[in-house]
Amino acid sequence: MVRGNQTTTVTEFLFSGFPQFEDGSLLFFFPLFIIYIFIVIGNLTVFFAVRMDSRLHNPMYNFISIFSFLEIWYTTATIPKMLSNLVSKQRTISMIGCLLQMYFFHSLGNSEGILLTTMAIDRYVAICNPLRYPTIMTPRLCAQLSAGSCVFGFLVLLPEIAWISTLPFCGPNQIHQIFCDFGPVLHLACTDTSVILIEDVIHAVTIITTFLIIALSYVRIVIVILRIPSAEGRRKAFSTCAGHLMVFLLFFGSVCLMYLRFNITYPPVLDTAIALMFTVFAPFFNPIIYSLRNKDMKNAIKKLLCPQKSLNTSAG
C-alpha cells in the first residue's frame, strides 16, 4: 500500500483465509500438491484418451474431453497460488494478479457451466429424439457449441472485471478467502455496498437459470428412460447419463454453496472448506467419475496407457 495525504491506495492484497493452517502448512501443502498433480494427469488422460480413440469421436465424448481440458486450467488458476501461500509467510497477491486470477478462474468456470448445459441438451436429444440425433448433433454443430462455450465464457466476464479494476481500494487489504473472488474483493472496495448486492443478484440469477435448464433436461430424460419397456434398455440409457448427472450435481452443488449465500456468513473453517470443495475436490472427482463409470472410456484409457497390451488383447 502507498500512503500519502492521509489516504491509502491498495496495490496488493493479503490472503487471510489460511489461519487454521498456520501450525501445519506443510501437512496441507503435500496433499494439495498431490491432488493437483492427479487433477492435471487425470484430466489429461481423459482428454487424450478421447482424442486418440476413433470409437469415441462423437459429440458426447468430445464435450467430455473439452470439459476435462478446461478443468486443468480451472484448477491451475487457483491451486498453484494456494500452494505458494501455504509455504509463504507473506501470502500476498498484486492487484493485477488478483484481477487476472478472478478473470481466468470465473471465465473457465463459466465455460464449464455452459458446456455442462450443452452436454445436458446433447443427452436430451440423444435419448428423447434418437432418430434425429445424428442429423441434429452434427460434427460442425458440436465444434461450434464447444468453441462457443469457451468464447462466451471468457467474453461475458470482461465488462465485470474491467469495472472492478476501476473501483477505488483505499482501506483494508485482507481478502478473507483462499483465492481472489468477487465477494471478498468487492467488500474491500471503497464504494456503495448496494453495488455488491446487485452483483450477487446477477450471479444468483445466472446460476439458478443454468441449473434449471440442466435440471429440467435431466427430468425429461429420466421420464423418457422410465418409459423404455426393456430393463436392459433402461440400464443402458441410464449409464450414458449417470456420469454427466454426477458431475452436474457436484459442480453446481459446490457453486450453490459458494455463491447462493447472499448475506449469510459462514464460520472461517466452513468457508475455507466450501472454497476447497469448489476449487479442488469437484475437479478431483470428475476424471474418476468419467473413467470408472464408463466402459468405453476405461477401454480407451487402457489403450492409451498400455497400447501394446491392448493390441495383444485385440489380436487374441
From TrEMBL:
It is a multi-pass membrane protein. Keywords: Cell membrane, Disulfide bond, G-protein coupled receptor, Glycoprotein, Membrane, Olfaction, Receptor, Sensory transduction, Transducer, Transmembrane, Transmembrane helix. Its main location: membrane. It comes from the Eukaryota. SUPFAM superfamilies: Family A G protein-coupled receptor-like. InterPro entries: GPCR_Rhodpsn (IPR000276), GPCR_Rhodpsn_7TM (IPR017452), Olfact_rcpt (IPR000725), Olfactory_GPCR1 (IPR050939). The chain crosses the membrane at residues 26-49, 61-83, 103-121, 141-164, 201-226, 238-260, 272-292. Gene3D superfamilies: Rhodopsin 7-helix transmembrane proteins. GO terms for molecular function: G protein-coupled receptor activity; olfactory receptor activity. It is found in: Cell membrane. Residues 42-290 form the G-protein coupled receptors family 1 profile domain. GO terms for cellular component: plasma membrane. CDD domains: 7tmA_OR6N-like. PANTHER family: G-PROTEIN COUPLED RECEPTOR (PTHR24242), OLFACTORY RECEPTOR (PTHR24242:SF402). Belongs to the G-protein coupled receptor 1 family. This is Olfactory receptor. The gene is LOC100960703.
